């Protein structure tokens, strides 16, 4: 967008200072009762960080057990609980809340709205979340342990053959779902109704666009997840047989319903990342985003295609050839809009004037590593080859490239990018670069060799493996521990920045454009109470 | 804000509709299976077989598999392992069931045909799998299956495997006796 | 491309230097031993190289841009930000490449879906955590269970060469013939995978799935269960031995004779009384092989999932019910009907063992005849 006029600027400035002192409650009640989008955004982000470390600790247990062949530290049953809860926490507890936190903080500021449209619902949608995860985590301490059927909870392993904690698992997923749906409705209503005068659809920053589309995906698929966990619950406890052949059901039906949710869910975790990268690359290249309109269309087409490809997770279940071909072609097609995005980012960089602060470094790493994840995704789409890749470490490598170096790297980039706006202080650039380089090297030590291990034939979700995989697994585990340790630098940077540092300017970054950079740093408690006018 | 309400209403409606859609996928999937033969599901209702024309130029091998599930103590076997049939011919195949335990057990046989698409052309006129079967302890019985292969079976299929998995459904049967007839659905 | 290759080869050398004794891991998908598996391999390599080329071009341009278009070199940013022509171009080119990938992929997929008549058909049934093979049109059927000793898993013994990839009784198939596999499952979903044949097919409870292969090379081919199927998912390997048709026929005949003889021996056993020491020794061996995965070696089970046998009320108070549950399983739980899996001798031994181990001091010796009686529905 070209010229932005916030009027009347000076007056509003004073007004904010005034508010700042008068209306911000103190102590714990500020956080419990808050309806302020910035407070709620902060809480989401802190919650996601805590969950990231809890889920990460579980990953460390997994890597510790896999360090050597044989059983050393945990029992296979506990190992399965770790893989299951690690997946659930990272997906629903870390990545999704982190994006929701960023949406809360940034969307109102980007579209010139004073707050989210439904502030009280916003408070609710955050505060039910800790309870959902408390239930999930406490279920690990039940006799028989927590859920151990993988985050995909395939029936009948999750029904007839699961432990007593399944009811808690279902309950906790229901709460997570309700929270996400409320968050999504809030985002849609905010974007639909609260854009400042002149903020037309095609002037919205891409982060807003991608979140708008993500929110639609959320309200369309989270209810399907709620439905399928409900069926698991009734199959297990109330004698229905949706997935039990003995009663006329079909276990493969579970997978169809689950992946009808599950595939769009994957895009829920990556579309906002596209928005973030589309904000960061132009800023640090000091050049406008190339192909804004095509970016919007590409995002929308990825979202639509995501509803037509679910069965590519199920090629080995025995589908008729024509269905297999359909899902293979549809899946391959997704490479086209995704490719357009990557090309647009590269074109944005081309003949720019780049600098390489931490957000830019993470965004560049995102482009390369996410694309590698995309390549392995394309390979997985090729059905005959998928028969060899399916359920091996090749798949594990694929989705960790997409979700760790994709989604998580983008979230980290976003935090570095907007942190000066949130705290008013610049983060420590040297420490940030350390964080980046340590993460980059260790994450590739962790996930890159998994491609080879998978191709060599190691199945996923096993606590013990044949001797030929031993050296690679030891190496992978070392990468895993280093990646875990590297994230402690991140916490250090965050705490340091929250406590003080070089004062940030309002614009923060030389090339930054957009409404969020028009307000002071740190962003006052209330912003845009008088809507800005965008020409 | 007032203008939010209609939008929230619509979005909630979408949410509810999608929750319903999740459940609607259950019958939709069955329809889809009937049309495409996913999982080799066969029709759960009887075919008539009246108007089938016998095609003596082709011979199809039918293989019969019968498998009591691991927690089902019945002995359950087809009379022969396989037979050759002409499409359109009506045949009867008997399955022997024996309950070696000392208690009454209710069994439900679940059919599955491979290759999946061939299931669309395998028609059952009468089948013990349409309903639950009761067998007292120490008793045995013959369970008949009357079937024909649709002459429209595409040429690439020359072997059809019919598998029955027999489940012990005594508990479910005891719990909901009035509706036992519907279980083949 | 050269770059990719150097990465692929330098990693393992680095790792092998660290520990010299472990077997070298192949770094790529296996070519396998069937026509289909080789097609799959070529397809995999084709897509791989296409991805490498695209990656080299895209990342190449990106790195050139990073090198040249940096502010520290004093460049001024350009102003262009849109070009419909270019957008259409880089939408169209990937579509063409994708079509190029889709054609061979579709061909291989259709070749895999060959429904012509097979020479040998084997029914494969997965259950927690073993495979069962049944040769159609024959009485030959048997379970195939992990053969790696528990002591190796718990690191008390040194691990053997085929650690976790060895079974007591492998599947045997003839070379040069079309073998058809029919997969199904007794409990949860399993997936039967032999990389050398490029076969991975889910075994779904209540339904059958089909796959086929034609192996020309005699040899031993190893694989694993690929779908998470519970606690011991890591411990249900697949081993297939391909023999020449003559060797296969000889093997099959020997197996069929052995099964017939074992059945005859069972009858004799009914009249015999085994002594307590023998029963307990046999019983412990059987228990470790078939029961300990769930009920644990110490009989304590896993609370909330697998019930404890030590001090179990059913065992201590009702001998017939105990025999019945082992013979016939328990509906709706993971307890299988072992009457079909074990011999009378093994059943009698394991029953005696569980009735007398871990403080279950019933003092009962269960004999083959007792088991037979319950099996025939004549329990008291």
Radius of gyration of chain A: 23 Å
Which shape of chain A, going by the Cα principal axes?
globular
Largest sheet of chain A: 2 strands, antiparallel
| Average pLDDT rating of chain B | 83
Q: Summarize the biggest pleated sheet of chain B.
A: 5 strands, mixed
Q: So how many helices of chain A?
A: 17
Which protein chains make the most extensive interface, counting residues with beta carbons within 8 Å of the other chain's beta carbons? A-C, 103 and 109 residues
Oligomeric state, counting identical vs distinct chains? heterotrimer
Radius of gyration of chain B: 21 Å
Which whole number gives the mean pLDDT of chain A?
92
Q: Determine the structural class of chain A based on helices, strands and strand pairing.
A: mainly alpha
Could you name the ranges of chain B where pLDDT drops below 50 across 5 or more consecutive residues? Answer: none
The poorly predicted ranges of chain A are 1-22
Count of extended strands of chain B: 9
Strand order of the largest sheet of chain A: 1-2
Q: Label the structural class of chain B.
A: alpha+beta
What percentage of the residues of chain A does DSSP assign to strands (E)?
A: under 5%
Task: Give the H and E element order of chain A.
Answer: EHHHHHHHHHHHHHHHHHE
Distance between the ends of chain B: 50 Å
Q: Into which percent range does the helicity of residues of chain A fall?
A: 55-70%
Describe this protein's structure.
The complex is a heterotrimer of chains A (535), B (185) and C (380). Chain A has 535 residues and is an all-alpha fold. Chain A has 17 helices and 2 strands. In chain A, 67% of the residues lie in helices and 1% in strands. Chain A has a two-stranded antiparallel sheet with strand order 1-2. In chain A, helix 15 runs antiparallel to helix 16. The longest helix of chain A has 36 residues. Chain A is globular and about 65 Å long. The radius of gyration of chain B is 21 Å and the shape is flat. Chain B is built from 2 helices and 9 strands, in the order H-E-E-E-E-E-E-E-E-E-H. Chain B is α+β, with helices and mostly antiparallel strands and 185 residues long. In chain B, the strands form 2 sheets. Chain B has a 5-stranded mixed beta sheet with strand order 3-1-9-5-7. Chain B has a 4-stranded antiparallel beta sheet with strand order 2-4-8-6, with no helix packed on it. Chain B starts with a helix and ends in a 10-residue tail after the last helix. Chain C is an alpha+beta fold and 380 residues long. The radius of gyration of chain C is 28 Å and the shape is elongated. In chain C, a hairpin with a 4-residue loop joins strand 6 and strand 7. In chain C, strands 3-2-1-5-8 form a 5-stranded mixed beta sheet, with no helix packed on it. In chain C, strands 4-10-9-6-7 form a 5-stranded mixed beta sheet. The relative contact order of chain C is 0.09. Chains in contact: A-B, A-C, B-C.
């Amino acid at each position: 967008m070209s010229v932005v006029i916030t009027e009347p600027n000076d007056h509003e400035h004073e007004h904010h200072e005034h508010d700042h002192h008068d209306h911000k409650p103190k102590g714990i009640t500020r956080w419990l009762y808050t309806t302020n989008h910035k407070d709620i955004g902060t809480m989401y982000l802190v919650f996601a960080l805590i969950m990231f470390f809890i889920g990460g600790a579980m990953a460390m247990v997994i890597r510790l057990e896999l360090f050597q062949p044989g059983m050393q530290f945990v029992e296979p049953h506990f190992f399965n609980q770790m893989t299951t809860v690690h997946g659930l926490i990272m997906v629903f507890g870390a990545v999704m809340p982190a994006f929701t936190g960023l949406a809360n903080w940034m969307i109102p500021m980007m579209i010139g709205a004073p707050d989210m449209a439904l502030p009280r619902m916003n408070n609710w949608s955050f505060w039910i979340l800790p309870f959902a995860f408390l239930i999930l985590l406490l279920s690990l301490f039940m006799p028989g342990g927590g859920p151990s059927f993988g985050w995909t909870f395939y029936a009948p392993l999750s029904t007839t053959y699961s432990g007593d904690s399944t009811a808690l698992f279902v309950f906790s997923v229901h709460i997570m779902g309700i929270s996400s749906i409320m968050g999504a409705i809030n985002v849609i209503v905010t974007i639909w109704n609260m854009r400042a005068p002149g903020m037309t659809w095609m002037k919205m920053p891409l982060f807003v666009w991608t979140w708008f589309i993500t929110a639609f995906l959320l309200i369309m698929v989270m209810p399907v997840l709620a439905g399928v966990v409900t069926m698991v619950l009734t199959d297990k406890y109330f004698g229905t047989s949706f997935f039990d052949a003995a009663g006329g059901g079909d276990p493969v039906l579970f997978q169809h319903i689950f992946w009808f949710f599950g595939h769009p869910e994957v895009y829920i975790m990556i579309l906002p990342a596209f928005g973030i990268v589309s904000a960061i690359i132009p800023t640090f290249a000091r050049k406008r985003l190339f192909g804004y309109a095509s970016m919007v269309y590409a995002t929308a087409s990825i979202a639509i295609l995501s509803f037509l490809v679910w069965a590519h997770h199920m090629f080995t279940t025995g589908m008729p050839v024509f269905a297999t071909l359909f899902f293979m072609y549809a899946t391959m097609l997704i490479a086209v809009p995704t490719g357009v995005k990557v090309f647009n980012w590269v074109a944005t960089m081309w003949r720019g004037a780049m600098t390489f602060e931490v957000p830019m470094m993470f965004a560049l790493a995102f482009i390369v590593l996410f694309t590698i994840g995309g390549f392995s995704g394309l390979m997985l789409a090729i059905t005959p080859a998928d028969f060899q890749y399916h359920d091996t470490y090749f798949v594990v490598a694929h989705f960790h490239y997409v979700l760790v170096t994709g989604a998580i790297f983008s979230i980290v980039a976003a935090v570095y990018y907007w942190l000066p706006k949130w705290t008013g202080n610049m983060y420590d650039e040297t420490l940030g670069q350390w964080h980046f380089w340590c993460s980059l090297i260790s994450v590739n030590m962790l996930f890159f060799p998994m491609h080879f291990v998978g191709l060599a034939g190691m199945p996923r979700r096993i606590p013990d493996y044949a001797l030929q995989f031993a050296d690679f697994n030891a190496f992978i585990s070392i990468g895993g521990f280093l990646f875990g340790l590297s994230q402690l630098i991140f916490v250090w940077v965050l705490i340091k920045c929250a406590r003080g540092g070089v004062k940030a300017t309002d614009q923060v970054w030389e090339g930054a454009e957009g409404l969020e950079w028009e307000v002071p740093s740190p962003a006052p408690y209330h912003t845009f109470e008088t809507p800005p006018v965008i020409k | 804000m007032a203008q939010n309400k209609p939008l929230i209403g619509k979005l909630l409606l979408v949410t509810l509709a999608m929750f319903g859609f999740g459940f609607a996928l259950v019958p939709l999937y069955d329809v889809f299976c009937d049309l495409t033969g996913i999982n080799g599901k066969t029709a759960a209702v009887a075919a008539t077989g009246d108007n089938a024309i016998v095609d003596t130029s082709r011979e199809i091998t039918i293989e019969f598999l019968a498998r009591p599930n691991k927690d089902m103590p019945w002995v359950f076997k087809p009379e022969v392992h396989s037979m050759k049939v002409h499409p359109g011919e009506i045949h009867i195949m008997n399955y022997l069931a024996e309950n070696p335990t000392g208690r009454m057990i209710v069994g439900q046989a679940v059919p599955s045909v491979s290759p999946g698409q061939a299931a669309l052309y395998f028609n059952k006129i009468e089948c013990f799998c349409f309903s639950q079967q009761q067998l007292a302890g120490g008793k045995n019985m013959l369970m008949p299956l009357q079937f024909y292969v649709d002459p429209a079976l595409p040429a690439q299929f020359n072997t059809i495997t019919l598998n029955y998995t027999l489940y012990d459904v005594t508990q479910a049967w005891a719990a909901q006796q009035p509706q036992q007839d519907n279980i083949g659905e | 491309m050269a770059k990719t290759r150097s990465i692929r080869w330098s990693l393992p050398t680095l790792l092998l230097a660290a520990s010299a004794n472990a077997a070298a891991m192949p770094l790529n998908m296996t070519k396998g031993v069937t026509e289909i598996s080789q097609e799959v391999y070529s397809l995999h390599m084709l897509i791989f190289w296409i991805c490498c080329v695209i990656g080299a071009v895209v990342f190449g341009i990106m790195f050139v841009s990073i090198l040249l278009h940096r502010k520290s070199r004093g460049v001024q940013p350009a102003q262009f930000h849109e070009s419909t022509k270019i957008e259409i171009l880089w939408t169209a080119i990937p579509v063409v490449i994708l079509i190029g990938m889709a054609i061979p992929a579709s061909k291989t997929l259709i070749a895999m879906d060959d429904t012509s008549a097979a020479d040998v058909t084997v029914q494969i049934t997965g259950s927690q955590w073993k495979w069962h093979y049944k040769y159609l049109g024959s009485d030959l059927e048997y379970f195939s269970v992990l053969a790696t000793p528990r002591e190796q898993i718990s690191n008390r013994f040194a691990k053997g060469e085929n650690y976790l990839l060895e079974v007591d009784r492998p599947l045997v198939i003839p070379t040069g013939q079309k073998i058809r596999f029919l997969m199904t499952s007794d409990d949860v979903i399993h997936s039967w995978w032999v990389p050398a044949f490029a076969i991975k097919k889910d075994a779904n409870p209540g339904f059958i799935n089909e796959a086929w292969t034609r192996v020309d090379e005699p040899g031993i081919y190893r694989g694993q269960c690929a779908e998470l199927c519970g606690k011991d998912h890591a411990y249900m390997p697949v081993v297939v031995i391909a023999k020449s048709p003559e060797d296969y026929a000889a093997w099959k005949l020997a197996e069929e004779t052995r099964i017939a003889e074992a059945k005859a021996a069972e009858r004799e056993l009914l009249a015999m009384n085994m002594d307590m020491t023998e029963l307990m020794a046999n019983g412990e061996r059987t228990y470790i092989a078939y029961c300990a995965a769930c009920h644990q070696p110490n009989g304590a089970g896993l609370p909330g999932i697998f019930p404890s046998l030590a001090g179990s009320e059913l065992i201590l108070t009702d001998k017939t019910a105990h025999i019945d549950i082992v013979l016939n399983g328990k509906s709706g739980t993971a307890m299988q009907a072992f009457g079909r899996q074990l011999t009378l001798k093994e059943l009698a031994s394991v029953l005696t063992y569980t009735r007398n181990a871990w403080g279950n001091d019933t003092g009962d010796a269960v004999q083959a005849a007792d088991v037979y009686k319950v099996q025939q529905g004549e329990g008291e």
